[in-house]
Specification:
four-stranded antiparallel sheet, six-stranded mixed sheet, about 15% strand, binds zinc ion, alpha+beta, 2 domains, Cytidine Deaminase, domain 2
Amino acid sequence: MSSDDINHVLALQDPIVKSLVCTELQHGVLIPLKTTLEMGENHAIIRVVITRAPIKSASAAISLLRNLLPEEIVKSFPHLRRCAKPADLPAHLRAQFMNETPQSRQIHTGKSNWIYIIVGPESSVSQSEISRKLSTVEGMEEEVFMRTVPVPELPPTSQVQAAMWSQHFWPTVYRKNNPLGPHPSLISRSTDEIANDAVIWMTLAHQIAQRSKEEGCGEAIGACIVHRLNGKASIVALAADARWHKQQNPGRTGNPLAHAVLRAISMVAQKLVRAENAGKELRSPSGVEFDAFQDAPILADEQKVLDVDHPSPSGYLCHDLELYLTHEPCVMCSMAILHSRMGKVVFRHRMPLTGGLCAEARGHGHPQLAGADWGRGLGLFWRRELNWSLIAWEWESVGLLKPLLVNYEVHA
Ligand SMILES: [Zn+2]
């Protein structure tokens, strides 16, 4: 995007946004984060038990297996073909099985009347019991064929990968989904949605961060929350880090409850409470006021944004809102983002030791941290065991927007 385009996009924003932006807008690029699954352990190989049956008895064998095994075992490999013709097996398996016995050779030559069937993961089926039961099926009385073969545990992420696995492991189906993270089409759609104006919100986060540092409030860390409906974005909250604000005895970390993300989320909450109480007479002017949180506006621009009403004060806390950050949030803030049901997160600087969103090994990309084992990145934006996920990007300034440096040990 050229600077003309950016200025055109700025011209379309609400007056308050135009009044807040006070530096020239710089270009930036959005880079989707990788999930923990995408980073590794993603193609775990496990062994499954397979058998084979005459085609005419295949359905009897399959229903027998279905009755014998729990449903989650029967359905545990939606990406693998349950039944495969001998000709469809990978070449090495064909060669191996074909040369075992004269009967095997027959099964694999000419027009075969046999079919291979996946029974289930080796670890969760009793081969002797299955074998005994299968020997009651017509055509399998003499010998129940049972072998184990390695297969990828999780589905493939592309057609090419499925084709490769079909050659190396077992006939595999690509179901056009990404089991390891957000679907590529969702990422590209979401990226398109925010690409034009992300630079504005990143700049506002940058500005408020700088101001907080200058005024001795906190670290140079800032957050901006945006609501988007039908392509129209409105600013909902703007907050800087305030960990040093009103701290007599700040220690090394200052006030952890005054991190930019927590303050910004709280400001969203304050707006929702305000909307709910609109027109009502209240004894206390504000619903929640805890000094520890320092979530009242401190900087003038924070106040300005807080004064504007929430464009859509319904739904749960930050449901589907967008959060723009100067720094990768700490683990506490990452969980707050998740719990508040944020929809999208963009941050600029990675926090290689303390950040909660990246999935790369800690210390990644920082030569001065190389060599030490800092552990795995948590990738908290997309984890199967958490019941909410969001899309997260790193934003790389390709313009002249100066980096906002904080010590890499800081929890943002
Ligand atoms: Zn934090």
